[in-house]
Amino acid sequence: MKIALTYNLKVKDATKPADYASEYDSEETINAISSALRSQGHHVEFVEVSRQNLFSVLKDSRVDMVFNIAEGKHGKFRESEIPAILDYLEIPYTGSSTLSLAVALNKALTKKILKAENIPTPAYQLFTSGEEEVDPSLRFPLIVKPNFEGSAKGITRNNVVDNKAELYLKVKELINSYNQQALVEEFIEGKELTVGVLENGTALVLPVLEIDFSSAATSGEYFYSWRMKEFQGDSQQGLTPTFHCPARLDKDTEDLVKETALLTHRAIGCFDISRTDIRLSPDNVPYVLEINPLPGLNPKESNFPLMAYAAGMKYEDLIDSIVTSAQQRRNLTHG
Integer distance in angstroms from the first to the last C-alpha of the chain? Predict the structure, then answer.
């Protein structure tokens, strides 16, 4: 097949905030995906979405499919931009639909759906102005997040607050800095877990990955903050978490965590691939923090490939599984 690889290239820009390009992909990731696709006999074209007239390029490309890892250009629905264009042009693509990508990037809306589906998620409140009264049912400590960002953008260890004064300061800071609502949710103490789902005919829930931050104590970080994600593995900064895959869970808890991730994948309507981030409380409740339908695919650093490797897959197998799933959906639609 002729496949276009759509992506945003991560480049440094001194005029932008430090976390501006955190969601974008490195050349290493782009080259790894293209090599995997070529190893399966596909012809690959590169489409960097930030630098081209995307509609015209895709309209004239005559590709059979798009392998989409692009975050889009800007706005609250940026991850839906590429799928929306592809739907209009009737070009099949990998990954989730316009709707699912828009929903998943909206943390508060995702949590509403999770609650409606009886999937555990931390109690929360959405702040628009920073002047709202705090819901008295919320229990400190609380964590404050930009509502429409990924890759832990805007989140540092100081986003965990212990009182109303700290809460209002952080809420107003994020609203002003990111020009969007701030999500406030109860901070769940416990194990940090992430779970990958591949859907290739039937759903495959990958081995649960546990991220242990005790080995990164010297950094002062104790959860997946922006600095932890952006500089993960930097020993000079002490940002060296320990990964356990499979996670250190008993069988019943492992099954519960996997079931929760699959339920989340389906509640948001994801296709082909997703990664669900979970905090497992001391009483073994798997609280879903968020779901990412566009998980990182760096072959060395990203969590999703680590889970795939633990399942006995090679990187090429992972990429081929995503393409095969998209092909099957296309065949069912047009069969």
Answer: 18
